[in-house]
Structure to design on (186 residues):
């Protein structure tokens, strides 16, 4: 069994430049990893994907990004093996902190270690971009300028150590809803 940490991210700056022909939005933003993280335990099994999540509001099925990451990894490597995944959530949902993307990135990284595939950074980035716009950043972390739909990353100077206070009200906002609301305001 291995344990992987899935760090949340915050946006330090966000500029939505417009809607692209592929349906995504062209963005330019500065992202920063933070210490708030989910914990993921993984172990191999003979076949199939088993996902357990400690949050009743989060599905533990094929719609979960952690599950999708495991399926993509197994398919890309033509593996008949399976994996058991347990997720302990600390990153709140609907807060723009990339909780699902962080979990997906952690699953890709964990499966690489678990099965000894020794993927390159290009392999991780290609697979991560298939899962979502924030997943490539969550694979690398740190401080990055993100462009395109968020998958084109440029490393920036590390921020000095500081405290960040996050407040999550009872309201949740999905990323898709936020971008649609942005389009409606234009």
């Amino acid at each position: 069994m291995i344990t992987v940490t899935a760090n949340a991210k915050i946006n330090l700056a966000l500029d939505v430049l417009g809607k692209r022909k592929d349906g995504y939005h062209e963005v330019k933003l500065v992202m920063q990893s933070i210490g708030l993280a989910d914990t993921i335990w993984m172990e191999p099994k003979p076949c199939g994907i088993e996902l357990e999540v400690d949050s009743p509001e989060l599905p533990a099925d094929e719609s979960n990004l952690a599950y999708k990451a495991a399926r993509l990894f197994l398919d890309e490597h033509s593996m008949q093996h399976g994996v058991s995944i347990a997720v302990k959530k600390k990153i709140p949902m609907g807060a723009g902190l990339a909780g699902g993307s962080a979990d997906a990135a952690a699953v890709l990284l964990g499966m690489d270690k678990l099965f000894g595939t020794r993927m390159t950074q290009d392999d991780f980035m290609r697979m991560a971009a298939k899962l979502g716009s924030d997943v490539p950043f969550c694979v690398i972390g740190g401080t990055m300028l993100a462009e395109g739909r968020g998958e084109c990353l440029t490393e920036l100077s590390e921020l000095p150590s500081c405290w960040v206070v996050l407040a999550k009200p009872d309201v949740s906002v999905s990323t898709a809803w936020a971008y649609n609301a942005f389009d409606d305001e234009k």
